[in-house]
Design a protein that fits this description.
This protein has 331 residues and is α/β, with parallel strands linked by helices. The chain has one domain: Rossmann fold (3-Layer(aba) Sandwich). Helices cover 50% and strands 13% of the residues. The protein contains twelve helices and ten strands. Strands 3-4-2-5-1-6-7-10 form an eight-stranded mixed β-sheet, with helices on both faces. Strands 8-9 form a two-stranded antiparallel sheet. A hairpin with a 2-residue loop joins strand 3 and strand 4. Helix 5 runs antiparallel to helix 6 and helix 9 runs parallel beside helix 10.
């Protein structure tokens, strides 16, 4: 793998579904682009929600139809040589969409994921094949990020704790946790935090004995913060149930993510609860549905509630500013 690109790599990750992960990724990336940052989006979820959001259906169909051919331009097309054992990852060209750059997803990423456990075992046995396979996605993303001179790379990770998300998180400099204000999101934090702790600890042990010259994942993702989402506002107040779970999220983020990570390495998470929250995103109802139909960030929806669009623009601008500040001045 070439020298690591200067772009800051961030995973937007929660193994629980339905927390607004893709919506957060798109709107945060858009807000960062308005701050003058060049952002590469990587649709690393085999469900391809990010690609389907940003790209017209006929283009998505064409991308998927061609992905198994020499002219393929999806993540699968780039990783296919690795899966087949015929060579290194093939560079693909990102799609430029309104100042953002996208590496399209592909349902066949699941075929690459099915090999990652065997690559992981090979790494533990100091086999070069394992390290090359484990770092294949990182290598491909790195080449694209260098080619466009990206400031940020955002992985839109799928809602699971599988081997694909393991290599994605271990490739990143930071991760962000979107969460809904409900009981299931609160409970899921424990699994998420302890899984990340285990991944980081396991990889640290593996790479200590890696052969010279093999590609290595960074292996030290820092917790950048969490974003509570999809809570309702009545008048000037948050709904009572959502307000309760918002407080629970803050406590459990600290006990289930911050503390386990700090036991491994204090630099992986800020010790103060107040620094963990990047912002809050209220339930924006039909505006989200219209944004998905139009394939645009919330603030650029044609028609719709003007006040809600302004709220969305300001909300994601504030989150983007915090991301920029915390990644440019890490603690």
């Amino acid at each position: 793998m070439n020298k690591r690109a200067r772009a800051i790599r961030v995973a937007v990750y929660n193994h629980k579904g339905g927390v607004g992960k893709t919506t957060l990724t798109i709107n945060l990336a858009d807000a960062l682009s308005h701050l003058g940052k060049k952002v590469l989006l990587v649709d690393s979820d085999p469900q391809c929600n990010l690609t389907s959001y940003l790209v017209d259906d006929d283009v998505v169909d064409s991308l998927l139809d061609d992905s198994d051919t020499p002219k393929g331009q999806t993540l699968w097309a780039g990783l296919k040589p690795v899966v087949e054992g015929s060579g290194e990852p093939r560079q693909i060209l990102p799609i430029e969409i309104e100042k953002l750059f996208l590496l399209p997803g592909d349902i066949r990423l699941s075929e690459f994921e099915s090999l990652l456990d065997s690559f992981w075992v090979d790494c533990a046995q100091r086999r070069v094949r394992g390290f090359r396979g484990t770092a294949a996605l990182s290598s491909m993303v790195n080449d694209v990020a260098q080619g466009i001179d990206a400031d940020f790379v955002f992985y839109d990770a799928g809602p699971n704790i599988g081997p694909l998300n393991r290599v994605i998180l271990l490739d990143c400099d930071y991760f962000i946790v979107p969460a809904a204000c409900d009981l299931f999101s609160v409970r899921a934090l424990k699994t998420l935090g302890h899984t990340l702790r285990d991944w980081i600890g396991q990889w640290d042990g593996v790479k200590r004995f890696a052969p010279d010259g093999v590609p290595l994942l960074l292996g030290k993702p820092k917790f950048l913060g969490y974003v509570p989402q999809r809570f309702r506002i009545y008048g000037a107040s948050m709904a009572r149930g959502h307000s309760f779970y918002l407080g629970q999220l803050e406590k459990r983020v600290f006990s289930d993510i911050v503390e386990p990570l700090r036991k491994i390495d204090p630099s992986l998470a800020d010790a103060t609860m107040s620094a963990s929250k990047l912002g809050e995103v209220r339930d924006m109802g039909v505006l989200v549905e219209e944004a998905q139909k139009q394939g645009v960030p919330l603030s650029r929806v044609k028609g719709g509630n003007v006040g809600m669009k302004q709220n969305a623009q300001e909300t994601f601008k504030q989150i983007a500013e915090r991301v920029e500040q915390r990644t440019s001045n890490p603690s």
